[in-house]
Every structure is written in C-alpha cells, then in structure tokens.
Amino acid sequence: MKNNNKLRTIAVTAAYSAGEKLLERYYRYERSDAKFKSFHEILTKSDLISEKIIIGEIKQNFPDHRILSEEAGKIAGRSEYLWVIDPLDGTHNFSMHNPLWAVSIALFQKNKLILGVVFAPALNELFLAEAGQGAWLNGKRIKVSTYNGEKTINTFCHGSKLSDMKKALKYYRYRKLHDLDCRQLGSASLELAYTACGRVESIVIPGANSWDVAAGVLLVQEAKGRVTDFKNKAWGLKSSDMAASNGLVHKEVLRVINQK
C-alpha cells in the first residue's frame, strides 16, 4: 500500500479522535436528542460531530481524496483513494447506553479495499486490518474461529427495507431453533470484528450499506475468513447484501439465508 504508514496513522487518529468525543457524549446522552431519518433509523448530534472530526482529519492530510460517509454522502475528489465512513455505527445502542457501538473507517484504492479500522470506544477495542498484512485487535493478531459444529454462534443485521427485515427475521428464527445462538448486536462493524477475532462464527446482512461493513469486511478477510454476497460472489461496494464467516460454516450460512 503506497504511503501506507501515513494512511494508517490518519485512519487510526481519526477513529480515536472521533471515538473520544463520542465517549464524552455517550455518558451524558439523552434520548430526546435523537431525530428520525426514517421509521427505523435515528440520527443524533453525535453522529454529525463524529463525522465532522473524521472528514476534517482526512481532508487536512489528503485534500484530494474522495469520501463516502453515511450522513454527508459523497464528497468529490481527484484521487484514486476513497474513504468509506460510518461515524457512529450502532446509533440505537448508543442512544440507550449500550456499549456496542463503533467508529468505522475503510479505505479503497482503485476499488480495492486496503485499510479498515473499527474502534469501539466504550470497550476500548481498536480493530485494524491492512490488505495482505493481517488483522489485529489492540495490537495483537487475530484469526477467525476454527469451529465447524452444529452449535455455532451467528449474528445478523439488516437494512431499513421491510423485505430486508423479513429476510433477517426468517434467518434468525431458523438459527435460533437449530444452533447454539443467533444475536443481533446492533452494530454491523462490530459483528464483523467479532467474526474476525473468533467470538462468533458468522454475520449476515440483508440490505448491507457499504459504510456499515467496508472496514469489517477487510477485518474478516485478513483474519482468514470469507466474505461474499448472498449469491456467493465476492463482496463489493455495490453489493446489496453480505455474508461473512470463518469460512468453515459459509456454505451453511448461505444455505440458510437463501431458504425459500
């Protein structure tokens, strides 16, 4: 990765800076501060403050870089680099003082995913992945689980469309009845990070947004896991759904999510 040290440093610095500000607000957050983006989606001032910090850090150091962020949308640039950002992944958790929320920052170069950072401030956990270099949690290398039995732990998330929710609920019902457990943790980036470090075996997301999952996708890939869409094709920025696993259970994950 050209200029990888600076790119990595800025990504981590931005995640820490935004995360520290979010943590301050988290401890004194009032649910009345939230506004609804849609029937199932909320937006808080904290989302916007975090986004401003991250974009400011990137633009100060790489003014020509392009950015795609959940709230700000697309920010044009002439560079081959594209930053994909979720400034607060798990806003619902944040709003009810559940610590499972994170800052997610990914970097693409010519459509290749080369860097991913997921920072969970309330848990003091920083996940980092670099293309071809591996994945780490707080500086220690991580790998996906080696479990391939009947009692797997699986997670799921979903987009805001009714069809996405129905597909996720069908998946949840089957998994809950047939496996050890299936959970919706409420933060896609963390569910991917948990898959990457072997805490769970998989995550599926009907209606996956790129800013929610991009950084986590690289974490799983660099931790020797597998990431595809529901048709078993390689995940990309335009993919409408996503399945990630330790690789060993991937065939079963796709079988269950694609059940009619």
Characterization of the model:
This protein has 2 domains: 138 residues, Fructose-1,6-Bisphosphatase, Chain A, domain 1 (2-Layer Sandwich); 105 residues, D-Maltodextrin-Binding Protein, domain 2, CATH 3.40.190. The model has no long low-confidence stretch (mean pLDDT 91). It is α+β, with helices and mostly antiparallel strands and 260 residues long. It is globular, with a radius of gyration of 17 Å. It starts with a helix and ends with a helix. The strands form 3 sheets. It has an 8-stranded mixed β-sheet with strand order 4-3-5-6-7-8-9-10, sandwiched between helices. The chain is built from 7 helices and 15 strands. Helices cover 35% and strands 28% of the residues.
The radius of gyration is 17 Å
Main sheet characteristics:
8 strands, mixed
Share of residues in strands:
25-35%
What is the arithmetic mean of pLDDT? 91
Q: Say how many strands there are.
A: 15
Quickly name the level 1 CATH class of the largest domain: Alpha Beta
CATH architecture of the largest domain: 2-Layer Sandwich
Say which CATH homologous superfamily of the largest domain is assigned: Fructose-1,6-Bisphosphatase, subunit A, domain 1
Between the first and last Cα atoms, what is the distance in angstroms?
42 Å
